[in-house]
Amino acid sequence: MSNHQVGETTYPTAKKVHNCMASEWIVNGDLHETFRCCTWDEKKAIIRARRNNYRIQPGQKYLRQAMVWDGQLGTFKAIPEMHNICCKYDLYEDC
Question: Rg for the chain (alpha carbons), in Å?
């Protein structure tokens, strides 16, 4: 079991392409089951993310959280709508 702490959360505008870490949880989980349970707006958010290869695009606002995982400092970056889907459907481990 991993140990993590969430630090500051910000919503900057991307200057370059970033991988959406929340999308990884959706795609690597049961995407079809999650998609089936989603609202129409959530489905549109997943489709938009897929069209961009699940990447945060330059000019797009994204969620950035400073985190500590097992004593290692890191940064979590996600499309806010994809992060909200993960939280709503309890897709993150150890949350």
Answer: 13
- Quote the tokens at residue 91: 């897709």
**Per-residue pLDDT tens digits for 25-78:** 999 888 888 888 999 999 999 999 999 999 999 999 999 999 887 888 899 999
Tell me the three state secondary structure of residue 89.
Answer: coil
Find tokens 């991993």 and name the residue: 2
Whole-model pTM: value is: 0.87
Residue pair 56/17 in contact (Cβ under 8 Å)? The answer is yes
Q: What angle do CA 90, 39, 95 make, to 5 degrees?
A: 10
- Give the burial class of 66: count Cβ atoms within 10 A of its Cβ; 0-12 exposed, 13-18 middle, 19 or more buried: middle
